[in-house]
């Protein structure tokens, strides 16, 4: 199979390539800021990334409380959380080969991605981390 990139996409990519070193440095700095802000938070585990040898594109955490409730609380407070990469074996396309994968399913119920783009500031990261702490604490108190 051969796939060809459109000329428009190639032109956009070439125009953006000059800004890559700045974007790379910003993403690494933001990821480190998240790592510092989330360190030691009870009920939340940062999914580690080797920011020295890669350019982080997401900031994912495992939420050990009721993730769906924490997710709703954060969204209600204006924090744009997401859930990337649900377990493949639970997707309809893979139903014929379904088998139980308890570890994968547990992580799939816990994983949440936090806002992460190069226009965030360290103050934004601190705000998100603070809201995560509040949401997890509130969810654990109810549950």
Explained architecture:
With 143 residues, the protein is mainly α. The chain has a single domain, classed as Aspartate Aminotransferase, domain 1 (Alpha-Beta Complex). The protein has helices at 7-17, 20-38, 67-76, 102-110, 122-142; strands spanning 44-46, 59-63, 111-114. Strands 1-2-3 form a 3-stranded antiparallel sheet. Helix 2 (20-38) runs parallel beside helix 5. The longest helix has 21 residues, at 122-142. It is globular. The N and C termini lie far apart (51 Å).
Terminal Cα separation, in Å?
Answer: 51 Å
- Give the overall pLDDT as a whole number: 93
Q: Mind summarizing the main beta sheet? A: 3 strands, antiparallel
Q: Report the strand count.
A: 3
What is the name of the CATH architecture? Alpha-Beta Complex
Nearest-angstrom radius of gyration?
Answer: 18 Å
The structural domain count equals 1
CATH homology-level superfamily: Aspartate Aminotransferase, domain 1
Strand line-up across the major sheet: 1-2-3
Class in CATH?
A: Alpha Beta
Level of helix content?
A: 40-55%
| CATH fold topology | Aspartate Aminotransferase, domain 1
Low-confidence spans:
none
Find the structural class using helix and strand composition: mainly alpha
The global form is globular
Give the number of helices. 5
Order of helices and strands: HHEEHHEH
Strand content: 5-15%
């Amino acid at each position: 199979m051969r796939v060809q990139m459109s000329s428009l996409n190639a032109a956009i990519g070439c125009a953006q390539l000059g800004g890559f070193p700045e974007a790379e440095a910003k993403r690494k700095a933001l990821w480190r800021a998240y790592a510092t802000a989330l360190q030691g938070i009870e009920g939340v585990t940062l999914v580690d990334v080797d920011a020295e040898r890669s350019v982080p594109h997401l900031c994912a955490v495992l939420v050990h409380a009721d993730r769906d409730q924490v997710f709703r609380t954060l969204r209600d407070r204006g924090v744009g959380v997401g859930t990337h990469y649900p377990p493949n074996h639970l997707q309809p396309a893979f139903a014929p080969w379904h088998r139980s994968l308890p570890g994968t399913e547990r992580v799939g119920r816990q994983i949440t991605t936090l806002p992460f783009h190069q226009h965030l500031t360290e103050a934004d990261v601190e705000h998100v981390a603070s809201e995560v702490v509040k949401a997890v604490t509130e969810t654990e108190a109810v549950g």
